[in-house]
Model the fold of this input.
Amino acid sequence: MPEKRQILVIRALRRILRPLARLLIREQVPYPVFGDLMKQIYVEVADREFTLAGKRQSAARAALLTGVHRREVKRIREERPDGETSASAALGARLVADWLSLPEFQDANGEPIALNRSSRRHGVSVRDLVERAGQDIRPQTVIDEWLRLGVAEIDAEGRIRLRSASFVPEEGFEEKLDFFARILAAHIATGDHNLEGAGPPMLDQVVWYGGLSSENAERLQKRARELATVALRTWNREARAAQDADSDTPGADRRIHFGAYVHSDRRRDETTDA
Done:
């Protein structure tokens, strides 16, 4: 990488890493832990994405690519990290996506209907949703998890009603952290693809304004949530239909993320802060 590009990348990293540093300090993750983790990630990415065709990646070449000492490369390769995903978050998101996209779980206006807690009552139930997804899990376990995370609530008739238009847990640190990691990783990967310029650019757009009052910032944040909800629910239905259509298609191994976010805080000097 030319020196000028390195300088520009490092300048961008300072902005990207500040909010991450705030998270790490708040959660008492000291720098040595983060530094060792970065060594692991550097080696893993070098081994996965920067190998020479037809050749096994040597520790010496991995060290040359990453700047991590060869002995450390060998140590890292021998220590495999734990799984990176939360099973409960992934399953919960899948079930809510089905609830929002499948016609049998929607009313005439396309809104998610309240689900019965038991299949003994007339109408669709949480059991129907679980079985439709092909999951072997007790419906009550799903209900308890949704209630714990604040995703759903029990209405006056004892039915389960979705509280939000997408699976965004209000409680449950592990589940919220899993979504944070998934969303941020996908967004950074999109930006990296566009910076690399190796193919058609992916959608990565944002609109921002400063100099707003607290009242207008709050109103615009609410409006952004409303607009994003409509867009995400529409896309979710189309994506689910496409996934079903491709279920028997050979080589259907692509995945896709589509997201929207809104962030509001006090305006800072954009040249020095995130």
About this structure: The beta strands are 152-154, 160-162. The chain has a mean pLDDT of 85. The first strand starts at residue 152 and ends at 154. The radius of gyration is 23 Å.
